[in-house]
Amino acid sequence: MAPPILTLQDIQLTFGGTPLLEGAELIVSEGERLCLVGRNGSGKSTLLKIAAGTIEADGGERFIQPGVTVRYLAQEPDLSAYASVLAYVRDGLTEGDDPHKARTLLDRLGLTGEETPSTISGGEARRAALVRALAAAPDILLLDEPTNHLDLPAIEWLERELSTIRSALVMISHDRAFLGRLSRATVWLDRGCTERLDKGFAHFEAWRDETLEQEETARHKLGRKIVREEHWLRYGVTARRKRNVRRLQSLHDMRRQRRDLRGPTGNVKLTVSEAEQSGKRVIEAKEISKSFDGRTIVSGFSTRIHRGDRVGIVGPNGAGKTTLLKLLTGELQPDHGSIRLGTNLDMVTLDQKREKLDAGWTVADALTGGRGDMVDVNGKPKHVASYMKDFLFLPEQINTPVHVLSGGERGRLMLARALATMSNLMVLDEPTNDLDLETLDLLQEMLGDYPGTLLLVSHDRDFLDRVATSVIAYEQTPQGPHWIEYAGGYTDMVRQRGERPSGTGRRNGSKPKPSTPIREALKQAKRKLSFKEKHALETLPATMSGLEGEIAKYQSALSDPDMFGRDPQGFEHVVKGLEAAQAKLTEAEEQWLELELLKQELEGA
What we know:
Layout: E1 4-15, E2 18-29, E3 33-37, H1 44-52, E4 59-64, E5 70-73, H2 85-91, H3 99-108, H4 122-135, E6 140-144, H5 152-164, E7 168-172, H6 176-182, E8 185-190, E9 193-197, H7 204-235, H8 241-260, E10 281-292, E11 295-306, E12 310-314, H9 321-328, E13 336-341, E14 347-350, H10 363-368, E15 374-377, E16 380-383, H11 384-390, H12 407-420, E17 425-429, H13 437-449, E18 453-457, H14 461-467, E19 470-477, E20 480-487, H15 490-497, H16 516-523, H17 531-558, H18 563-566, H19 568-604
Parallel strand pairs: 3-7, 3-8, 5-6, 6-7, 12-18, 12-19, 14-17, 17-18
Antiparallel strand pairs: 1-2, 1-4, 8-9, 10-11, 10-13, 15-16, 19-20
């Protein structure tokens, strides 16, 4: 292992009399890829700020090698002191940094630099903060929730960019796919202390569960030993005095050890309030279109959503995901086409910006609506303090104003409000923002058992794979924007499309560049097509037509949104067949195009 360039040792920090960090450590070597994981409120962001030098610990040691540069991406970057995005980015550069790289990165992320910080969105502010951190090419890059507010194309771009840079990385993120692709070691912050696993995040959860099981076994053995010693104390025969005094002291030490043991942080308890069953057909959209100020958002989109479906909606920021969601739920009316909602619908919504939380409310007000101290959960009254505990709020937070809560706490509060509302149609707009991994696991399990219907907007690929039974994806075509529904989760959608959702890769119908062998052939002396080349040129169109028909049959089978739930094995067979046919068609198209180009060149020579 390379020598460390940043070291935190025995870090101690207390907030409001409660210890947050108790002996935490963090060791970063040159070029290392670390992810920092732990529950919301465990102190991950605080430890990252100590590593960045923005706050000082009560105790412990921070050492950084002389000459090593560190850049820190805050969870909520503040651009308010700057006249423009470019001014904010340039302020993060030091002597020797390349200002042209900053311009290039801004352009790649869809920013001009002239944007005014007071008017940009959360996603634009996040992209600007990423450019500020990446443009400096630091030795160590500390990233706190870098994927928050980013769309899928931006997340995928960031993954590619981070995988190629030489900087050491320390990342906090709730995005499992992001951590799994980039991390090579994992630091777990739990109950104020850290433990390190020299493997990426993909191995973390199994290791964590094994560690907690070993702790529970050790705690049980200690309890049994104390019981035996207490029995001896009461009923044992008196022996040598010194020996008995030592044994009694050992018992006191074991009791103190048990008192000092801190068990794992409690789990969120998710219980959804179920309304009466809705009709079988929940939403039917026929050829709906919607435009704003001359810009088309949705064009000719149709779908049928049945009871029990879990439908994900994906696309880049600004594509109109929330608009489509509002059209499907009847909040907006289409310019053309029709929307029919099913019978007996009780809908609950979790909005992306948490706008339904009044900053002047207390936590109790948000859960009870300001009426008394009881919450109705699945038709049964429950005291608000007990319900708060299910979502990891402390009893003393009952009168805490909403505006002082952290992002994770606001996310859990909105989740608690939504789940306490009777529903059979749940609409979730970016529900995973600011939730820790354990809460995400429980939310996924709860949604899997939810008997109603789910509409979900999310950029979390792993979450979509685990929850969605179909995905509505945005595609920009020469004819305008299109929304297309695919059976299965996010990964299934990518496989069926045959390209990355960011739009990279060749779309069907585009012309590939001639391959090197053909370009070389064009430079050779005049010649004629061989018999084999002529035969291929004549027969390839029929071959391509046959493959197109085969692809159409596969796509027709996949257009059934119920196929994945009804026959997963058959669905997998169809997807593999579609992939093979698309690959053969691509190969045939490229071969035909190369031969056609060669023919034209030879005839014109």
